Amino acid sequence: MSERTSPDKLSVVVFDAHFDKVHYALVIASGAAAIGREATLFFTMSASRALLKDDGQGRPGWASMPLFDSGGDGARRDAQYGEHKVATFEELLEACVSMKVRFLVCEMGLRALDIDRSDLRDDVPVEEGGIVTFLTDASSDGAVIFI
To answer: Can you give the pLDDT at residue 4?
Structure first.
């Protein structure tokens, strides 16, 4: 019987613009970090909106993101998660930051959506980079997931 080993690092491309999918990317990254695995989240295209600062009315970027499986938006689903004792978006984001998950945002994606770096949250250590940065960061013994 051969010995099984798990990936030494998790690298996630966060592409999808739906709140529930981006939320689950945070679940995966925080889970990996909790068991001692390095994790990188590479936000690109419309998923980058999840990292936008609040709109001046207390709604961060993720709150306006649509849902994959039903009508409504991220704020509504996040409130439901909180009511059911499921980690909220902000709780997962804070957990990822505290466990040193690396946050990359695609500079091409920002340009394509006309998002300026200054529009991104200050409480998340987001680094700008491209696909080469992401691929260089990924481990040859790791796992790459596309969401």
So the answer is: 61
